[in-house]
Amino acid sequence: MNISISISNDVSQSANLVVLVNEKTNWKSLESIASPAIAKVIQDKLAKKVNPFVLNSGLETLYVASIDSQKELWQQREIARKFGYQINKSLNVQKIESVALFNATNEAVLAFSFVESLLLSNYEFPKYFTQNTNTKSLSKITIDKNALTKAETSELSILADAVFKARTLVNEPVNFLTSVQMGEEFKKMAKEAGIKIQVFDKKKIESLKMGGLLAVNYGSQEPPTFSVLEYKPAKAKNKQPIVLVGKGVVYDTGGLSLKPTANSMDQMKCDMGGAACVASTIYAAAKAKLPLHLVALVPSTDNRPGENAYTPGDVIRMMDGSTVEVLNTDAEGRMILADALHYAKRYKPELVIDVATLTGAAMRALGTHATAYMGTANKSVKEKIEKSGFDTYERLWEFPLWEEYGKMLESSIADKKNIGGDLAGMITAGKFLETFTDYPWLHLDIAGAAFTLSESEYRGRGGTGIGVRLLFDFLKNY
Question: Does the N-terminal or the C-terminal CB of the chain have fewer CB atoms within 10 Å?
Answer without folding.
Answer: N
